[in-house]
Amino acid sequence: MTMTSKKTYERPVIKKLENNMPNKFGTRTIFEPISHLEGQAVNDLIAKYGSPLFVISERKIRKNFRKARQAFETRYPRVQFAWSYKTNYLDAVCNIYHQEGSWAEVVSGFEYDKAIRNGVQGNKIIFNGPDKSETDLRKAITNHSLIHIDHLDELYMLQDIARNLNIRPKVAIRVNMDTGVYPTWDRFGFNYENGQAWDALNKILFSGMMDLVGLHTHIGTFMLSPSAYAVAASKLAHLAQSVLTKYNHEIKYIDMGGGFASQNTLKGSYLPGSDISPSFDDFAEAITTALMNSDYRPKNPPLLILETGRALIDDAAWLVSTVLANKRLSDGRRSTILNAGVNILFTAFWYDHKITPAQPFTSYTEDTAIYGPLCMNIDVLRESVTMPLLNKDDHMVIHHVGAYNMTQWMQFITLRPKVVLIDEQNKVHVIRNNESIDNIRSLEHVPDHLLNFE
Ligand SMILES: *Cc1c(COP(=O)(O)O)cnc(C)c1O
Fold this sequence. Notes:
The protein is α/β, with parallel strands linked by helices.
């Protein structure tokens, strides 16, 4: 018997021609199959490395980084980027940023150790966050890392350790403030408006035991407003000038943190992120203009540090997956189940990720709910999205997944998949293997009395 594939019946449809104009439901979803990523066929990638699979583009990472750096360097003389490890701390990814000249920005002892193991020099590691143990601080002080103090308990502990080690730690304080964007992020660092920040600076400068080198802020994440950064930059510069006036002490750097919005689309947003997210130029213009207009008058312009994470990497990665099944919900709506769920795509909780088929499809589309494979009601990738008819075993590409997924993913119900990097010659490298049951079991221990049962 010869195998001939019979074409499935497709019901005829009349399609209205439209321009890509938003209607009352937002922008029309336009589909084109995305069959290749950086020159590699999605089908081949899945055949070779399994499904689901995270795919990262080295070319895109470098391109985004250079664009961001250029936006700042063309406007300000001294600029330094520090890669935010928690955004994506796969070693291969971090090292691309380090090759491009980025320092490391870490928020835990674990991330700090990762940066050291990647070969980052101690004095090029910025240590942020509320959780720094005594061991962490000793390490950071000895390595001459930049310690950004979050609260007074940390300040006192740091002074204690400094006295013990007889080394002057290089410190900055994290400052939180009203930037006109609400709610204000006031749980990290010292407040500007109520005088906490100034109190902390007084304590540091009066004690004379620490080397105050910088001022830091990180005003939020997925910030859509460049003007908020202008306000923040002015306030930090004003603090720096107060320090110069009172103590004749020059602040060497102003660290504006991260938080620039990526091109992703927030849930409930009327327009897609690609239409409304400001560009690196917009953020750079706001920050550098505010700094240069400020009243801070040091002999040398302070180094401008940026810790942007999300906006640099979000669109440099995809999650490719496979259709497990289609079914009708009780209201008749179509639903499609993919083999990639919220356990590996944490950002599905706040983004409407763009999802496209990886093969040609019919022109007929339908409102579809897209679910992941978990036996859990929360496992929803898209509540409602216009999709062509998909078949079991079709491949799908989920876009803009580079930030906060390969760090916030969890081993829940299923195992975590492989991550591959496609280099600038379109060569594929596995940069993180998939988990196995042995990986998981190796951490577990069953007490003797629980080993046997009938
Ligand atoms: C998370 C974080 C960043 C990076 O934020 P993005 O929103 O990914 O740009 C930078 N600095 C600090 C202190 C952070 O906590």
